[in-house]
Each structure stands twice: as C-alpha cells, then as structure tokens.
Here is the input.
Amino acid sequence: MAMFDRLVGVFSSDLAIDLGTANTVVYVRGKGIVLNEPSVVAIARTNGGPPKVLAVGKEAKDMLGKTPGNIAAIRPMRDGVIADFTATEAMLKYFIQKVNNRQHFVKARLVISVPAGITDVERKAVREAAEAAGVREVYLIEQPMAAAIGAGLPVQEPRGNMIVDIGGGTTDVAVISLGGIVNYVTLKVAGDKMDDSIIQYVRRRHNILVGERTAEMIKQQLGSAYPLPEERTMEIKGRDLISGVPKSIQITSQDIRDSLADVVRGILEAVKATLEKTPPELSGDISERGLVLAGGGAMLAGLDEVLREELGIPVVVSDQPLLAVVNGAGKVLEDLTTFRNLLM
Here is the structure.
C-alpha cells in the first residue's frame, strides 16, 4: 500500500482546495498556491438538451449581470455549501484540470475545506462533487480549523485558540484546543451580506440600483467598520429607479460604514456568543492571547479595532487573511500523518 501511494504521488497532483462562496483557491502539494479564481460558472441553457458550461472562474464572473436570456452566470456555492451540484462539479473539474495543465493524471488526493457544522447531506455533496471531478481520496477539514492552521495558531496544544473566519457566505467563529473545535458559531453573515447591505442602502437612500460587482468594488474602496483617519468619497454609477436611466452619484465612506453596521454587529454578537460558551480555562488563554481574524472580511478597515474595543481582548488580523484557509489545508496536505486527527 505504501509503495502504491508513492507511485500515485509521482503521477498525480495532490491538492488542497478552499471551495469558497466567493473564490476557489487551489494549493498543489510541493508547489503551493497555483490558482485563485471566483467561484462562478457561466452556463448556456439549450432547448431540450443538457446545460452547457461556457466559462468558469474570472471569465465567468466578468459575465455577471451582463448575460443574455439563454446564458446564466451563477455562483454554485451559497452560504459556504453547494447550492448547484452540477455547476459545482463542473467548476471543480475545470480547476483540477487547469492546475494539471489538462493532462491525464492518476486520480489525486484532495483536502477540501467545509464550514463548521456542515450537515451529513452537505458533506456527502462535497465528497461526490470532488469524486466526480476525478479525485481518488477526499479528506474534509472544517474551515475554522484550516484557517487557524494557516494563521499559524498552535491548534494541537492544550490551550485556547480563537479564530474568526469571515468568508464570502459564512462567518465561522471557533475556539480550538488539542486538535479539536471546542465550540463554534457559524453565521450566514459575511462578505456577500456586506455587498447586499450596500446595494440595499444605495437603493433606499438614493433610489439607485447597483449590481453585485459594483457593490463589491464600493466595499473594497470605501468599506470600514470604524471611523477612518480621513474619510473617502467616490462616484458610483447605477440605474435611477424613478427615471430608469443611468445616473452617477457621490457616496462617502461614512455612508458605507452605516450600511455595514448591522453586519459588523452580527459578527460581534457571534464572537460574544462563542466566548460565553467557552470553558473558563480556555477563556483565560483567549483573554491573554486574543483572537485572530481571517478570510476576506477580515480586511474590512477597522473591524479589528471595533472587536478590540467591544471585547477588551487582543485582536490580530492574520498575515494573509484571504489565503488562511487554503494555506492551512495545504499544510495538512503536506503532512497528512501529523494532521490526520484534525480531518472529518
């Protein structure tokens, strides 16, 4: 068996994948991160025939909101789990073939991250999508555990580690000790909800409708959770809901901070709820060492300051928040023997 595994290792690319609601990131054993693309699939609907995949990743995301009636640009992951099995399978197959330069390899092993608290049905769907995409062995790891490993936390030691992983579809808050998740809260409030809050705010305040991509751009350029040293302004374009014609308006970082207030409050309450369920000994570790923020949402300006003020504990943003989950899954892939007890 060991000889077989060594031979397979020569002819296959073992992978770690962060299958995110917003982005899919792929790590190849021995090489590191080789792909980071949006989790979007463009599908053409045909009369009577099966749907045809036209584009995946960045090319498909460029089509969001711009497709004719017979083409749909969809995001097959919702709230961190598979919403469209066929599109997810096609997306995984495309990314796996892309990192292998479309060569035919012996089926590889895969470590793939999933939200904490995923149901058996959702877990099965992830496994089946990966196996259908050409994977030999599938190992699942919970996203907060992978993020903690990627952020460099000593998850196998007998002390409390707290990670807050704010992805596209979910926010996972977890306390980890001795290689296991002691308690957690999974919140379906994260990056996508921030974008939606911006869309609704602009619509309500200015009667202007903007799309998902515009909202994401606004979040990245103006988004904040705490007053900025110097507030910013930008011009945005959308459709006037009264006249129906395109219109430009000026918005400020204060406007966007107001629109994101409920999302930030939701994340704060999830952290508090997790801390309230934490055993006293581990709480002592966390009050001393603090918590680590990971995921794309961790990059929201001032979020660490808000949490630090409200909770009274140290708060640190991981070095590569967007890549914490895939880096952690990659570390596990590189040393499955050491980390096997952390896998689901």
About this structure: Residues 191-206 form the longest helix (16 residues).
